[in-house]
Amino acid sequence: MLPVTFASDNWAGAAPQILDAIARANEGPARAYGADDLTKKVEARFCEIFEKDCRVFFVATGGAANGLALSVLTPPYGMILCHEASHIQMDECAGPEFFTGGAKLLPLAGFAGKLTPGVVSAALAGFPDRPPHGSPASCLSLTQGTECGAVYSVSELKALCDTAHEAGLPVHLDGARFANAVAATGAKPADLSWRAGVDTLCFGGTKNGCIAAEAVIFFDPEKAADFEFRRKRAGHLWSKTRFIAAQFDGYFRDGLWLTLAARANAMAQKLSAGLAAVDGVEISYPTEINEVFAVFPERVAKALLDQGYFHYPWITPGDPAGGAMQRLVCSFQTTEDEIASFLDVVRAV
């Protein structure tokens, strides 16, 4: 039996349509460093999808996208408010601090990876303006969908952006699973981003069928500032940028990005419902995108791993399960048969 993975959507392969798009882009020479026609075409496509003239910059990883975006939004002595389970706080090896030149991250608590205006306002009140001793709050970073598989509604997102803007803070949105959030809500990409008040979006494709395709989007072109120089200095200006552009070209063609995300979300719903029906299993957070968080006995987790069903324990600050929670992630490649066999093991144990 081949291993079955619910470890991460990063474990999934690339969608065939993405590989075909890369093959098409491989025909003949093209200008380097983003000056090619395909890159320009895809940048314009982003503007169409988000219904706004914006600046789009391609990078290869989500960590670079977040760190570089934040480096434009905050000074080295600034303070970035974020969720305590956010990727920039837990999983980027101080990358944001590195790219910003030392900006402070202020982790905040909230159920299912979500922040609220009240939590943000209380945090801001706890760090009064007292130069030069205290780091001034400089940015609010949100994640859509969150690290715990939740989705901010348009109204929730707008309320948070309004709170940040009233305090003079720009809003950064980590959208590694932005496609899953759009597919789950049915909202327009513009409504889940700039219309709600988001200033900069890190739009991910890698987790949803691409190979290495991330985009940093500045909805106010003037706020892109010196980003192109920062990207070059960080080593993320690809000479053969057409191959990142090609992935997005295939990703957006015929709505593929939402088709892939919707399938991953649907598989997670099946997995979540199946686990919830098993005695002794508790679903920790509502399953809103392609991630399922569940608590089950350690012997079950061990049996699953022993039989080739990969998944990860979910251990973060404020974890209500004290480390017993498991994260299970579906991708566009997850099958109903894989879910059924996984559930058979859980029931048997």
Question: How would you explain this protein's 3D organization?
Answer:
With about 350 residues, the protein is α/β, with parallel strands linked by helices. It folds into two domains: about 5-10 and about 255-349, Alpha-Beta Complex (Aspartate Aminotransferase, domain 1); about 15-255, Type I PLP-dependent aspartate aminotransferase-like (Major domain) (Aspartate Aminotransferase, domain 2, 3-Layer(aba) Sandwich), CATH 3.40.640.10. The chain contains 13 helices and 13 strands. The chain has helices at about 15-25, 35-50, 60-75, 85-90, 95-100, 115-125, 155-165, 180-185, 225-235, 240-250, 255-275, 300-305, 335-349, and strands at about 5, 55-60, 80-85, 105-110, 135-145, 170-175, 200-205, 215-220, 280-285, 290-295, 310, 310-315, 325-330. A seven-stranded mixed sheet has the order 2-8-7-6-5-3-4, sandwiched between helices. Strands 9-10-13-12 form a four-stranded antiparallel sheet. Strand 5, helix 7 (about 155-165) and strand 6 (about 170-175) form a beta-alpha-beta unit. The longest helix has 21 residues, at about 255-275. It is globular, with a radius of gyration of 20 Å. The mean pLDDT is about 95.
CATH architecture of the largest domain: 3-Layer(aba) Sandwich
Please report the number of helical segments.
13
Strand order of the largest sheet: 2-8-7-6-5-3-4
Q: Average pLDDT, to the nearest integer? A: 95
The main pleated sheet reads as: 7 strands, mixed
